[in-house]
Amino acid sequence: MPRIRHLFLVAFLFLFAITSTAYSQASKEKRCSGGACFAGAHTLDGNPLPLKGISLFEYWSFDVYTAALYADASVKGIDAVLGDVPKYLVLEYHRGLEKQNIIDNSEYALQENSDNDMKALRKRLGVLYENYKEVKDGDRFSMSYLPGEGTTLYFNGEKRATLPGVDFQKAYFGIWLSRSSVDEDFTKELLGG
User: Fold this and answer.
1) How many Å apart are CA 159 and CA 121, to the nearest integer?
2) Backbone angles phi, psi at 2, to 5 degrees
3) Which of 36, 75, 123, 189 has the smallest count of CB within 10 Å of its CB?
4) How high is the pLDDT of residue 168?
5) What is the pLDDT of residue 171?
């Protein structure tokens, strides 16, 4: 019996080493699009999230930003990614945009999604918009979501605000990840499709 336990322990440690090495390797590997590069994994609240996909968003053939989505490998499809699950989304901008322009585009995208209760979101959106900043080429806005904590906005790695609510994260991440997102193909690429 001790020999079987020993073999089980050796097999477990071997599998753990392979998994750890694979994660370590994935987090070192970068993927690039539109001149922006992203790590193969992102650690959120101590938990590693693999890169699901990256996508370049263009408007009138101008590169606006490249986005990268990190979520657990088991999270597949729009409904799952907009569920109450940890996720991290990064936008690297390829051109300068004024703060008001970013607010206007966010508002438009949010109002286009009929699933959003804009009245319920309004106060939290006000706080979020106060924390937006003018961007220049190379700047990054990112957002994380942790169940029970909320949606956190970062600008170039600096924490700007945290907004509570599953409804808020579903609406806000939905700008890029819902069926009413900024672009269907863009969303598919972010989800790894």
Assistant:
1) 21
2) -60, -35
3) 123
4) 98
5) 97
Average pLDDT for runs of 10 along the chain of length 193? 47 43 53 90 94 92 92 94 97 96 95 96 97 96 97 97 97 96 93 86
Give me the pLDDT at residue 28, please. 56
Q: Where are the domains of the chain?
A: 31-190
* Spatial separation of the C-alpha atoms in residues 112 and 115, rounded to whole Å: 9
Check whether domain 31-190 has CATH 3.50.70.10, yes or no: yes
Q: Under the phi-then-psi rule, with left for phi > 0, alpha for psi from -120 to 50, and beta for the rest, what region is 78?
A: alpha
DSSP letters, 95-131, are: S-B-HHHHHHHHHHHHHH-TT--HHHHHHHHHHHHHT
Buried b (16+ CB within 10 A) or exposed e, 132-156: beebeeebbbbbbbbeeebbbbbbe
Q: What is the dihedral of CA 129, 153, 105, 165, to 10 degrees?
A: -80
Query: Which distant-in-sequence residues (6+ apart) come within 8 Å of 85 by Cβ?
Result: 71, 72, 75, 145, 147
Angstrom distance (rounded) from CA 70 to CA 21: 19
Q: Give residue for tokens 């940890």.
A: 86
